[in-house]
Specification:
Layout (H helix, E strand, L loop, with lengths): L7 H18 L2 H11 L9 E3 L3 E3 L1 H7 L5 H10 L3 E11 L8 E6 L8 E9 L4 E4 H4 E2 L2 E2 L15 E10 L5 E2 L3 E6 L5 E2 L5 E10 L1 H23 L3 E3 L2 E4 L5 E4 L1 E4 L7 E8 L8 H13 L3 E7 L4 H10 L2 E4 L3 H11 L2
Parallel strand pairs: 18-19, 19-20
Antiparallel strand pairs: 1-2, 3-13, 4-11, 5-6, 5-9, 7-8, 9-10, 11-12, 14-17, 15-16, 17-18
Helix pairs in contact: 2-6, 6-9, 7-8
Bound molecules: zinc ion (3 copies).
One zinc ion binds next to loops.
Length: about 325
């Protein structure tokens, strides 16, 4: 039986990957990178070639630090569907010292010397004579050695007929040389089959992530300001230790001394469909059960489903439904935060 609905496991999988993405968004380095995309500072992360290390990503290095494994970082963001990638180049590394400062050596297939001379082959069309370009060269003009006529226009009375190589070592001639590689750093010669050969990508921000991140970015900034104006010290993301000793992460934590309520926690939940599920409410409950803040709030963008709202009442979690800054601020006022 055919069905046009996506299978349950697929739905479950995309839900899981979204939860994982939300976790990744909490990484400070990811936030910095995304803010550059959303602010328009970068549109695309292109690799820049470095002779020794091969391709590097200076924009990412500036955020993550040069000692970190940039490839692992970018690859994770690609797997979580935060970044999209496109093949930019392939890069060859020396198998002996890992340098990318590698040249190609074209060699004589007979004696393997790389001291070969490359010539163009020319065909004189009217008489059909073919030879290397030097054999036609007379002073500053080309003259056919067979019929002694002057060659005037390429593709008219003569044409290029490929290449011809001659070995300076063994004097043999051939049309296709064999290739090997030479490491300019450790001076090792090696063949393609021993080389380290890697894909290099350009990265752009995925459409889904753009939506999720700009919502987060657009909403978290005004929440911060709102709370700061009320005397709170705000962290985003914020870490709080629970009674169990475990540390929990919230999208925003706010604290102030003396004035009650003095510890607030916020989580932002976005949905690509029109409703956020009860999942973020359940996740919030698990954390506040351990942390016991004065107030906890889940901000659903744009809405939270009925089940979620019922659970929120049961768990004493405030719910804000908003799709933009104005609605969030109005709801914070209404809640009397
Ligand atoms: Zn090497
Ligand atoms: Zn040779
Ligand atoms: Zn001729």
């Amino acid at each position: 039986m055919q069905t046009h609905q996506s299978p349950v496991w697929l739905k479950a999988m995309s839900q899981t990957s979204k939860i994982q993405r939300v976790e990744v968004y909490k990484d400070h380095r990811v936030q910095l990178l995304l803010s550059k995309f959303i602010g328009g500072e970068i549109k695309r992360i292109d690799p820049v070639f470095d002779n020794k290390q091969g391709y590097k990503y200076p924009v990412v290095e500036a955020i993550v630090g040069p000692s970190s494994d940039i490839d692992v970082f970018l690859n994770q963001l690609f797997k979580e569907e935060i970044l999209e990638r496109e093949l930019y180049d392939k890069v060859l590394y020396c198998p002996n010292c890992n340098s990318a400062n590698v040249s190609v050596r074209y060699r004589c297939p007979y004696c393997k010397s790389f001291d070969i001379k490359k010539s163009s082959l020319i065909e004189h069309v009217p008489c059909g004579y073919i030879d290397t370009e030097e054999r036609f060269q007379t002073d500053d003009r080309l003259v056919c050695p067979r019929c002694n006529k002057r060659l005037t226009k390429v593709d008219k009375d003569y044409r290029k007929a490929g290449i011809w190589c001659t070995c300076n070592e063994c004097s043999k001639s051939f049309d296709i040389p064999t290739a090997s590689h030479f490491c300019r750093d450790c001076h090792k010669d090696f063949m393609f089959e021993d080389a380290i050969y890697k894909d290099v990508y350009s990265y752009t921000l995925g459409a889904k992530a753009m939506k999720e991140a700009s919502l987060g970015w657009v909403l978290i900034a005004p929440i911060r300001e709102f709370l700061q104006a009320r005397g709170y010290k705000v962290e985003s993301p914020g870490h709080l230790k629970g009674a169990s000793g475990a540390s929990h992460i919230f999208d925003v934590t706010a604290s102030r001394e003396k004035v009650h309520p003095n510890v607030l926690v916020f989580d932002l939940a976005t949905s690509n469909d029109d409703e956020v599920t009860e999942q973020p409410i359940i996740a919030m409950f698990a954390k506040i059960y351990d942390v016991s803040p004065n107030r906890a709030c889940v901000i659903g963008v744009p809405k939270i489903n009925e089940n979620g709202k019922k659970l929120a009442v049961l768990y004493k979690i405030d719910v804000i439904e908003a799709k933009d800054q104005k609605e969030v601020l109005r709801a914070l006022e209404t809640l009397g935060i």
